Amino acid sequence: MSPCNYFVYTAGPGRPWLDLLPDPNAMPFNSQQFGLFPCRSGVSEHYDVAFLNSEWVASDEACQFELCTFSSKTGRWSSKPVLLDLSPSEIHKVAIEHETDKLITIGHDSLGLVDLWRGIILLEKLFDDYPVMRYMTFPKPVVYTIDAYGATVCGEIAPECARDVACCDGLIKFVDIEYCYSDDVNGNGWKATIWNRMLSWKDWRKRFSVDKFDILVDPSYSTVLPDLWDDNTKMMQLKKLICTIPTLSMYDDDFVYMMSTMTEEDKNAWIISVDMKQNTLQAVAPISAERFSVLCSDCRPCAFSKYLKITSGVVIPNPVGEYTKRNHLQDRVLEALRTQDSLNELDDCSEFERSNFEEYRSLVQSSPVSSLHSNIQNVAGYYASNDIEKAASKAVNICLRASEDLNQVLQESTSYPSAHAEAIRSKINVVLRAIGSLVQTVPVQPRMTTVADSHGVSKIYSEEEKNNSHEP
């Protein structure tokens, strides 16, 4: 019997509930090894739980793997063997060296067991008769050393202090922090780099690299972190902050969150958000470090907050301030509108043959469409916190559902491309109409201008885009 009980909590529309999972009668496992998948048929009250079980077989001098899955429909656990698509060196990594730090779900039928120093064990086609195991190494090698007992040791610090992996809509994101220790009065520096990769790609693709000393900090943050002011440069700078434990966003954006303090003994701490694409400090939120060392504790991203019912009259303060919130809304809406333009262009050329369907689907996934869902979620958060009228909230919700439906069709199209070609075209049209309705509800801000195009359709532009536009 397992020494622990495991539960699945379901939130969302309707009444929340808590399920106790029966014991799988497998070798001991912990919460990091679970993958949770909503029901593939679209019935929200059902789900599947999966984890990888391994056993060393002395007679074969090899490790055997099986996938254990629990279905809420049947209320039972089942197991099946895993096929290995691994080279001899990868088999050694998986069986001997790999240490799972966290787990990610990839799409609707794949699982990733992440060793932050080494790579990811990929379990694909989980719900087929024979799941397949592959190995994905990270793009940046780690220096290995041998300890006093002859064991291989990776790195000089805990892996979560320097790396993180996340997945959004099938896109795997990897961040690596390279620390530069110095006795200089400017303090210790670091350089953060983000890579992306889809399962179908052969290699990682580098996104952005940001140096701590080059990150732009808006003067408005002086009210939250006055110690960041530099008298020599007359600017706010991050160089005095100790930053560690990078955490990637749950959404398809380029934000990295880090735990930060002014000193290692400081009881006042902050979570900072760095926009890697814009090379700017995007947000700051204070946290208490009274009962634990913030530099040894990581915060996990979670979607629970949007399902919580706050007691009437209770006001939750926003430590970031209205300046960041307002500009963040404008940026997200403008990105959504750029997505609208991209979808229009894709829709115009959507009369494709089956032979190049895969190329078309790739264009949809790599264009601004890939970040649409996170942008609309930010707009939804703004509306919720500012008590915007119900009509606007309805438009946001419709746009969110349309974005989710498009993502779902894109994921399913990997198995049956020709059957989903028309479905993708249909979902694109739904998303276009949803964005159009959303635009009509957005409060125009000083940096945004409403302009009617040649077809009489109202669109919102940034001042810079309007000035550079050739439209009348």
Notes on the structure:
The protein is of the alpha+beta class and 472 residues long. It folds into 3 domains: 1-134, no CATH class; 138-301, Lipocalin, CATH 2.40.128; 322-468, Up-down Bundle (Four Helix Bundle (Hemerythrin (Met), subunit A)), CATH 1.20.120.290. 24% of the residues lie in helices and 32% in strands. It has a 5-stranded mixed beta sheet, with helices on one face. The chain has a 4-stranded antiparallel beta sheet with strand order 3-4-5-6, with no helix packed on it. Strands 14-15-16-17 form a 4-stranded antiparallel beta sheet, with no helix packed on it. Helix 2 crosses helix 6 (417-439), helix 4 packs antiparallel against helix 5 (390-412) and helix 5 runs antiparallel to helix 6 (417-439).
Please report the distance between the alpha carbons of the first and last residues.
Answer: 73 Å
Mean pLDDT: 73
From the 3D structure, determine the CATH topology of the largest domain: Lipocalin
CATH hierarchy: architecture of the largest domain: Beta Barrel
Derived from helix and strand composition plus strand pairing, the structural class reads alpha+beta
Major β-sheet annotation: 5 strands, mixed
Global morphology? globular
Estimated helix fraction: 10-25%
Beta percentage is: 25-35%
Biggest sheet strand line-up: 7-11-10-9-8
The count of helical stretches stands at 7
Q: Radius of gyration from the CA trace?
A: 24 Å
Overall tally of structural domains: 3
Domain DUF7880: 329-446
Pfam family, one: DUF1618
InterPro entries: DUF1618, DUF7880
Domain DUF1618: 114-257
